[in-house]
Amino acid sequence: MGKRVPPNARQAVVVYGDDADSAESTVVLYEKQGAVWKREGSWPAHNGRLGWTTDHRMDDERSPVGVFSLTDAGGSLDDPGSRLRYWYDDNAFASMIEDGDEHVHDFDYVIAIDYNRLKGVAPFDWSRPDGVEKGGGIWLHLDHGDGTSACVTVPESGMKTLLRALDPRRHPVVVMGDRKRLSA
């Protein structure tokens, strides 16, 4: 995790909430063209039920604040044209949903946020290099209308746009947190 966007990053997904305890946020896709960051799209979103934290822990229901790379994607639906490596696995994602769960489609499309995870592996790989207590399995995924355990949710149209736009050759990152911490 970093506090600054790396110099080689040419795409940034910025996720910001109005305050530290808010589960509501906005996702904005930016692409760097020359020295200028150009806004390419934005969507309403949700983050951790209890807001944001600079010290994320397993099950704290807060999304981690910081700058993280985006390297891997997947889902329980076929690849919609992702430029990131895409893992289709209906069974891996289905195993996270209980029968009759209203969140059955949350993982149709996901983009793994490289927080306490190995890069270059499927999003549903549960390896945690910094230990299980630091949490992990934090993704951008389909919105279900309210806060999450720590993920960031985006409407389906936004997820498809992000999957098709994010290009590993442009070193995409996600910059996430509440407005106050992001402006510090």
Automatic annotation (TrEMBL):
Protein origin, superkingdom: Bacteria
Protein name: YkuD domain-containing protein
